[in-house]
What does this fold into?
Amino acid sequence: MFKSAELGNRVDDAKYAKEVAKLRADLLDAQYELLEDKSFPVIVLVNGVEGAGKGETVNLLNEWLDPRHVRSRAFGDPDEAERLRPPMWRFWQALPPKGKIAVLFGSWYTAPIVGRVVDKTSDGKLAAELSRVRSFEQLLVDDGAVLVKLWFHLSKKAQKKRLVALEKDKLTRWRVTAQDWRSFARYDAFRRVSEHVLRETSTGAAPWLVIDGSDPNYRALAAGRALLAALRARLGAAKEAARKNGKAGRKKNGASEDAAASMLRTLDTAGILKSLPFTERLSKPKYETKIVKAQATLGRLSRSSKMKKHAVVAVFEGMDAAGKGGAIRRITQAVDARHFSVVPIAAPTEEERARPYLWRFWRHVPRRGQFAIFDRSWYGRVLVERVEGFAAEDAWSRAYAEINEFEQELSDHGIVVVKFWLAITKDEQMKRFKEREATRHKQFKITAEDWRNRRKWDDYIVAASDMIDRTGTAYAPWTVIEANDKHLARVRVLETLNRRIREAL
Amino acid sequence: MFKSAELGNRVDDAKYAKEVAKLRADLLDAQYELLEDKSFPVIVLVNGVEGAGKGETVNLLNEWLDPRHVRSRAFGDPDEAERLRPPMWRFWQALPPKGKIAVLFGSWYTAPIVGRVVDKTSDGKLAAELSRVRSFEQLLVDDGAVLVKLWFHLSKKAQKKRLVALEKDKLTRWRVTAQDWRSFARYDAFRRVSEHVLRETSTGAAPWLVIDGSDPNYRALAAGRALLAALRARLGAAKEAARKNGKAGRKKNGASEDAAASMLRTLDTAGILKSLPFTERLSKPKYETKIVKAQATLGRLSRSSKMKKHAVVAVFEGMDAAGKGGAIRRITQAVDARHFSVVPIAAPTEEERARPYLWRFWRHVPRRGQFAIFDRSWYGRVLVERVEGFAAEDAWSRAYAEINEFEQELSDHGIVVVKFWLAITKDEQMKRFKEREATRHKQFKITAEDWRNRRKWDDYIVAASDMIDRTGTAYAPWTVIEANDKHLARVRVLETLNRRIREAL
It folds into this structure.
């Protein structure tokens, strides 16, 4: 969840000044429309890492919006009245009426996360707390609320830099407390628990938006745009419903999910794939030594008696001609044919379309001891189906959570889930397309569809970046492989696979 | 959840024969319409107590429906192929395509319940499993499925009777195994865990229906009617959407919730309140002795130092003139005025209507050491708002789960939640209305609205019975008080309150 927020996203001052003027005007318009319309409340949660600009964002939102209709509340340690009542009591008090916006600084997420990291509460307790959080947010959504859940993130390095910078300046030194450094010492634990919490509570109707907090301009625009997109989508849906029914229609989950999907689209995650250098190369002789060695290791691992308690699910995604087939063959060469199956995924059949989209992948889940290698996969839902509009917006935006849940079930059962994105440049793809057209035995590999997909290159990059960002989990991480050099790619794939299997055994 | 299913509901053979002919014809019609329409799948879960007629119901559904388009699957212990894959794998295999009906005998609920009772898995593990179940069902519902979750129940006595009867008959003796008796020995644990599981997974879009399994005629009709209602509601919603949009509209949660609400309405729970005898009386002298004693006890408990860790929420519901005010005064007479507040609940204000309906009750949650006494309460959502149509069907049917969650939060915080339904007969109400009209100082108590409500007496009884059935939990049980005799009612209220507080301290 945090990958795209560690890219060092920046917006320079000139661009910021221009964009912010327009954003503020639009936000005010939307706020007044909401106030007029009074059909739903908006709840903005401001959470995240210390020093990532949470307080500054709350101040900015109050500056940008008409503050008479914004209710900001900061939740620190509970006061006496709060301690004497159930933990959710103070949050209920802070709920805004329809037509208004509440900005909550700290929220019902703080206590479960801090409890798990600092007081070492059990996994079971955390699970019960998150289950309660989901019920509460579902109640809000069912009641029509728009939830904007913002998580401001800093990498460990960026957080340290920020604390040091604040301490150096006499004017800001007071802002750094011993507590801040104590928290920093627990950065890794906080990161691990937060990622788990965000994933478990990122639902279709109330997803988390993780914002890179390192640049003030970037984070301000990201937060403002997300709020604006959610407001506009829901105001639009409300108007649409009113037009159709002759009155303001009941707010269904669908409306929330449309607002949520619009929010997600405002985040620029494409940097994950755009920032690749594509410089490394591997010579043929070196490749031949390395691939033989990696294949031997894989063969040995696949025959290990410990594999009987495990299985492997390997997922290959990437643009057309990225080299998925070639990489897969290097795996199958190394493993006994009785121990693997390759599952090529094309458009779903009629039988498959009649069921939830994950159904056809469940059919191919390997039994213990087996490898299942997917040449394209369930990620089609958030790639081709999203880009081509085969899946409705609420369906694909819900799919990230569904996929994470699916992969967790695999992982909990001892299945090693290894996911590769084979990245190539647009030029390299063109080179390969032409090569295929020119080579008799490769012509079958290139179709009119490949050329059509190529025209939507940028859309696919955005979709793939979102995918990597929202489904890269501790138990099923993505490995992005620079695949302009096929040799390098194949070796990296095998080495990654071997490492992940070894860790599991 | 099990109260209404222990009333010994019966349908005699003549009535059954008549009803079942009509039901079968209607079910077939609906099935063919579904088959034609192909816009959603139907999944019927058949779960419950051993001997409550699960197998028989599966057979009947196959007999009633066109079996070519029904897929029945029984899930026993997993076979080898299943054991070697993640637990949910076999259930995914059994999902029906759109247009078809799957009847699943045993389901994803069996393992968590048996695990908790027999293998004593932890609460945390159960919470994690139920969280996964909710995600899975949410996925199915989001994908458009209609889920009909049937739980066949038998009281402990009825289960024993059934096992003994089967054993006595030579022809059925083979059906009773040692395992059945072992399970019976764990009846109480199974009941407790099942109730928890059903409550935690009874969501707005996929609620549980608990069916009394003691009478074959009754349970068959109840199951068939629930399925029919769900089919009809969804087919109707699909047609409506098609008419509006010129094409089959996307299925939103709203459609599922309408189908779910229709299902709920087919259950006859009214027996809970209709079966009261109203025979007991308490003489004035006895009343005076008892009430003084009970008040003294309450006063002592309220001043106990242990109360500092607790609080009391007492809820009074009942028909107009049931004696709520009088009972409440007997409590407040006994408790120091600094320690209680009485919260009368009338129609919500504008400020309250602009927020989720539970908001105004959260405001009155007492701090530790305090009593909050609600004269009418959050149950208005499923009583007056349901009967008068102030809340949409999906909103009030969702409210049972929301209320259970709310009361659990109170209870987890150490608050004693005591809920009274003061039951009077219709004749008694008339007597009291007339008395009020005739007495100068009571005239203010009777309004035109009271007379209007009285005309909907039967609807209120149905709503109140559903409420008691679906929100009577281990941590916040309902106490139904026969209140035709005011003296008796007041003493019972105080004694119940004292007992619950004493248990908590």
Remarks:
- The two ends of chain B are 26 Å apart (CA to CA).
- The domain at 274-504 of chain B is CATH 3.40.50.300 (Rossmann fold).
- Strands of chain B lie at 42-48, 70-74, 101-105, 146-153, 208-212, 311-318, 340-344, 371-375, 415-423, 478-482.
- The longest helix of chain B spans residues 216-245.
